[in-house]
Amino acid sequence: xxxxxxxxxxxxxxxxxxxxxxxxxxxxxxxxxxxxxxxxxxxxxxxxxxxxxxxxxxxxxxxxxxxxxxxxxxxxxxxxxxxxxxxxxxxxxxxxxxxxxxxxxxxxxxxxxxxxxxxxxxxxxxxxxxxxxxxxxxxxxxxxxxxxxxxxxxxxxxxxxxxxxxxxxxxxxxxxxxxxxxxxxxxxxxxxxxxxxxxxxxxxxxxxxxxxxxxxxxxxxxxxxxxxxxxxxxxxxxxxxxxxxxxxxxxxxxxxxxxxxxxxxxxxxxxxxxxxxxxxxxxxxxxxxxxxxxxxxxxxxxxxxxxxxxxxxxxxxxxxxxxxxxxxxxxxxxxxxxxxxx
Length: 342
Known about the structure:
This protein is an alpha+beta fold. It has ten helices and twelve strands. It has a five-stranded antiparallel β-sheet with strand order 2-1-5-4-3, with helices on both faces. A five-stranded mixed β-sheet has the order 7-9-10-12-11, with helices on one face. A hairpin with a 2-residue loop joins strand 9 and strand 10.
């Protein structure tokens, strides 16, 4: 280690005192990148003897871990006034000790003459922050894995419940009880379909096109006996939305499609089509279920809302949406409209 070079004196000793007392690890370097002053915090943070730091070349500090070629090139460019180091990231690799992750900032202090230039080098140890971020990222990955596993288990459990409901429907003697069990089965399958979508996609993000297609396929498979006669068309844009909103939309579609399959096509031999359509724009979104069946019931029957109608109204209120039912002659159109983003 060479002795401290002979340098022009600083304007006063206040600058040296400020460097030494700095809470942020700080070095004052001369034009040759030798340490003219070092803060106590720097020596403490990197376990260096202050007496051996002052006067030493930066690259000679410790066991040479500060001798990174790229750092030295950047510092030389800074001392000549051609650059300034702002937030330079560096790994300080020390023998037998953990690697430290540092952020360095270096700025030229004096340009009275080429021989009198000095540079301040501030060092921020972000090792703890980096470790915390890695731990947080690992925890997030583990949470996602556990969430997907939970969604798989929930979907499987719902499938079992749906199967039990169908078995019960086959055993009961009452047509009314059988009808209620079938309805319960379809509602459970609506949630099970959503769970499968959540398990297969990004957590918290449901693509409505895939979800509603799968949902209508499931309903059609259990309720349509001849798919060449009765069919369900699904027209959905690329909208993705939250799981909560998807549940409400899925249950609304379930109720409306089941209602259309039950009442719109009393003649099983007559062809019919149900169209489920959803679009979203900056001004709002709309979900419609339209059939080309026999149309709306007589006025006296229409005054008797069933459970399905109550479910659709309640879910639409939750979504801050309005329900409009239109007789399209032939057929019926139910539009659920929300003004504003979901």
